[in-house]
Amino acid sequence: MSLLQRILFCSLLWANQPLWALGLPPEIEASLAAVKVPGDAISVLVAEAQGGTPARLSHRANVALNPASVMKLVTTYAALDLLGPAFTWSTQVFVDGNVHDGTLHGNLIIKGHGDPKLVVERLWLLLRRVQGLGIRAIAGDIVLDRSAFETVVQDPAEFDGEPLRPYNAAPDALLVNYKSVVMTFVPDAANRLARVQFEPPLSGVQTQATVVLSAGECNDYRSSLKADFSDPARIRFAGRYPLKCGERIWPVAYADPASYSVRAVAAMWREAGGKLSGKVREGKVPADLKPAFELISPALAEVIRDINKYSNNVMAQQVFLTLGLRAGSRPDAGAAVATMAGAREVVNVWWTDRIAPGAGANNIDAPALDNGSGLSRDGRISAQALALLLQTAYRSPVMSELMASLPVSGVDGTLRRSQSETPGRAHLKTGSLRGVSAVAGYVDGASGRRYVLVAIVNHANAQAARPAIDALIDWTVRDE
C-alpha cells in the first residue's frame, strides 16, 4: 500500500466511513455497459451491518443523488426511533349537542390526526361506535376536521404518469381509504356480464353495476373496460370485461379528492342506517369540547410494513407529517398544525443527534427530504449516508421492526419479481422514478455475515440497470 493510500485509509477510518474500493466488480460493470449506463451514474456501498470495518465496496458513495422511494428508509426509521414501534394515531369523535330518543340535536364532529390506515372497514367501525352512543339520527351536521395537517397540493400524475394510483394521493389529516374507490369485477357467465361492486359508496356519485363480458384473453383488462373516471359524479365503462379474467379488484384514485371524505362519510352513515338532517361538511372542533371516543390506528410497526414493502407514498407522507406534528406524545384537540417544513426540521435535528452527531467522526450531511416519501425531484441523499443510517438502525432496539418492513428479494413486496439468483437473502427497500433506480437495505452473505447494501442509479436508462442491481445483490451474497 502506497503512502497516499495509507493516508487515505487512516483518514477514512478516523471518519468512520467506508474504505475506498478499486472500481465496480466486473460483472456489474458489464451489466451496466450492456444497457449504456456509465459508471459515473451509479453510487454503491456495501459494508458490514455492524460497522467498524472497511467497506467491501464503495463507488462514488459520497455523491448525493435522488434515491426515489428509498428515502422512505429515513422517514420510517426516524419514526420508529422518535415515536416508537407501538405508536398509534387517533381519530377523535366529538358530540356537540344533546342526545334525546336516538337523535343528536347538534353536530357530530370527526377530527383526524393523520391515521394512515383509516380504511373503509375502520370508518364503518367508527360510525357503528357513534351509533353505540345512542345516536341514530343527527339533527345538525357531520363536521370533518382536517386541520391537524397543512393542505398539501400535488399533481398525482407528475412523477409516474399514473394519476389513478391511490398511492399518489396527497396526505390528509383525515385520510379516508387513501381517497380511492375499490372496484371488484365478478363475472356472471350465465347472464354474459360482470357485476361491479364499489367500495366505499360515495354520496352523489352514479356507478355502473354491470359490464358486458367478452370472450377474449385476460391481458390488459383495464384498457378493455374503457373506464371513464373524469366526471366526479359518475363512473362508467364503455368497453367489456374478459370472462377469462375471473374476479379482479381494481383500486383507483377518485377524480375529486377534495370532496372524497365528505362523500364517503355521508354515504356510509346512510348505509349504516343513520339519518342526517343537515349535511357533511368541513369545519373545526369548538374550543374546550372533549372527545366522546377515539378510534385508534394499527401500531406504527404495522404501518411501516405497508409503506416499505409496497412503497406507499401517501402513507409515508402521513408518517412524515406526523413527525412534524409531534414526536412522542398523543395530540389533543387544537394541536399545532403539521407542515412539511416542520417535519423536515424535526428529521434534520434527529439526523444530527442520532445518525451523524456533531462535527466529529460521523458528520455526514443530512438528506434533502422534501416530502419524506421519495416522490420528489428534489430529494437527495448519498449512499454513504444511507449506509450509516442502516448501520445505526441495525444496532438499535427497533432493528427487527425496520428489517421486517423491507421487501424480501424474490419473495414479496416490490422485490417479488427480483431476478436475483439468491432469493430470500436480501431485505431491501426499492426506489423507482423516471431516471432513478435504487435499492438499500440488508443482505445476508454466504459466510454468515450481514451487510448493508446501497445502490442508486440516476440516469435516463436507470430502469434498465435493474439486472445490474440484481447482480450486485448476488455479488454481495457471494462473500466467501
Structure explained in plain terms:
The chain has 480 residues and is an alpha+beta fold. It folds into 2 domains: 3-84 and 336-477, 3-Layer(aba) Sandwich (Beta-lactamase), CATH 3.40.710.10; 89-297, D-Ala-D-Ala carboxypeptidase C, peptidase S13 (D-tyrosyl-trna(Tyr) Deacylase, Chain: A). 28% of the residues lie in helices and 23% in strands. The protein has 12 helices and 21 strands. Strands 4, 5, 6, 7, 15, 16 and 17 form a 7-stranded mixed β-sheet that branches. A 5-stranded antiparallel β-sheet has the order 2-1-21-20-19, with helices on both faces. A 5-stranded mixed β-sheet has the order 13-10-9-8-14.
Number of DSSP strands?
21
Name the beta content range. Answer: 15-25%
Tally the helices: what do you get? Answer: 12
Query: What is the architecture of the largest domain at the second tier of CATH?
Result: 3-Layer(aba) Sandwich
- Tell the overall outline: globular
Helix content: 25-40%
Distance between the amino and carboxyl termini: 23 Å
Highest-level CATH class of the largest domain: Alpha Beta
